[in-house]
Amino acid sequence: MPRNYSIVVMFTALSPNRNCKICKEVHTEYTTLARSHRYSRSFNSDVFFTMVDYDGGAAIFQRLKLTSAPVILHFPASGKRKKEDKFDLERRGINAEAVSKWVKDRTDVSIEVIRPPNYTNAILLGVFLFAVSGTLLIKGNSLDFLYKWKYWAITSMFIMFAMTSGQMWLHIRGAPFAHVDRNTGRTSFIHGGSNMMFVAESYIIAVVNGVIAFGFILMADAPKDPSNINSKYMSYGGLALVVVFFSILLAIFRMKHRGYPYSLLF
Asked: How much is the average pLDDT of 157-178?
């Protein structure tokens, strides 16, 4: 009997013995989307969500020739599956909103993702306000520290390093921390493509940018007296940091953009 509805299936491996960390992350987002659809006011029977675990459905994996997990497939109501019926985790990300957009493209069913309340931001804001209030109370009338440019400069630099390292992009896309190759067991902290990155990769970029900035600061703040031995150490040390870590930055860029021709030391 022909179906008149589509099915979205996540093939996963959630057993602790499988050690699939990304499976757990994708499972959380996938169930969030499925529940959002199930309890939505606009719920309909045009699409259904289900899941197959490898330990309970190895034969299904073999029949579909699936050799890795997680995989999300769309089985249309009629016709054969197309290439677009496989969700591209690496390119689209793993958050529920990205899967919802893909489901909309494949089934024309719009699903608004509804997440459970998250009080983390409220708690952090409360802690921040408490810390500021406590500081003002302890300092009393002495607020001179607010006028010291170094505090604001350091704060601004931390914000810039976080933003230029891709933190906002990662927050939006829900990228994994790193990738573990299931065949070799090797962990990759830097994604090889130009349209994707890992959380660990953003930390590496932030540290590299920070060290480069520190090198420029050393060169700029070095004493101007040529006879001062500390001046030479600071200048040469700053120059060495800039050259070495800028070379690392270029090497990472070449890893993600294979055709980039320029390098420095590496």
From this structure: 81
